[in-house]
Every structure is written in C-alpha cells, then in structure tokens.
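ESCALATION

Customer reports they have been waiting on this structure for their group meeting. Please prioritize. Original submission:
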Amino acid sequence: MEHHQPLDRVARIQADWRLERPDVDVSPQGVIGRLHRLANLLTEELCLVYGRYGLSEGEFDVLCALRRAGEPYERAPGELAAHTMVTTGAMTKRINRLERAGLVTRRRSDDDQRGRIVALTAPGRELIDRAFTDHMHNERHLLDLLTPGDAETLESLLTTWLSRMEHPRPADSE
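Update from on-call: job pushed to the front of the queue and completed.
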C-alpha cells in the first residue's frame, strides 16, 4: 500500500499553475519554492534563539564574526562585512546597537587613524558564547528532522549548487 503525503503549499501552487498555464514548465518551483519556504521557516526558528539573547540575526552574525576572529576578538567594519551575511550598509547600524548594549567597543585603528576597529567586550564574549552554544543545539534539532544520510546528501548538493551560483563558469564560446 502506498502512503501519499498530502500536497504541501508548493505542490498546490504548482497544481494551480499547471491548470492555468499548462504551456509553462513549473517543475523548478518544486525545488526553488520549497527551498524558499524552508529558508523562511528555518530563519523563524533560528531567530527565536537570537531573540532569547536580545539579538537580531544580523547582530548575532556580527558577534560571531568577532568571536571567530580569535584573541583579541576584533575586526575592522569592512572586514566584519566580509565575514558575515550583513551588508556594509547595515553594518554601522548593527555596530551602533551592539556598542550601546555594551557588547562591542569601537576605537581608531593603530595602523590607519581614519580607520576603526570593532572589538568584542567581555560581556559580549560571554553572551555570544552562550548564544552560539544554544544556536548550535537548535541547528542540530532542526537538522535531526532528516536522517544522517539525507543531511549529508543535502549538504553536498547545496555546497555544489552554492559554489556554482557564487562562481559561475563562463559560457563555452564554441
């Protein structure tokens, strides 16, 4: 006996489009639509943990980038943008908020007096260490919804796809 899962939101949308536009191949929605929906659901789950520590997703990312820098836990703002998913335009706002909360400090660069250095404070390090531990437990819980083999396969597929998106090969000129 076959067990059919009920149609998910993406499958229902595809079915509607197949009726309305049978001339268009809607099969890409099966992957892209589900990835988009999954990304939104994962973000909601991840943000619950960040929120427990009074952090936004971007602020968590900035504190992690500083913590990963190693002793003395500091980076220039441009370097922070390169090591996070936060755009340079949004970086100043996040650093200002983290500085007001006492989690980071800013000082002039020793090398370039016009440049700035952002450093993790002791309370910032303590907070991000606790938040990161909870974040990893949360990610483990979310990933455990898959079998270890499925998670490994998915990671491999996503790694390949992301690499091809980030580093497209020039089209063959033949």
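Sent to customer with the following note: The beta strands are 74-75, 104-108, 116-120.
Escalation resolved.
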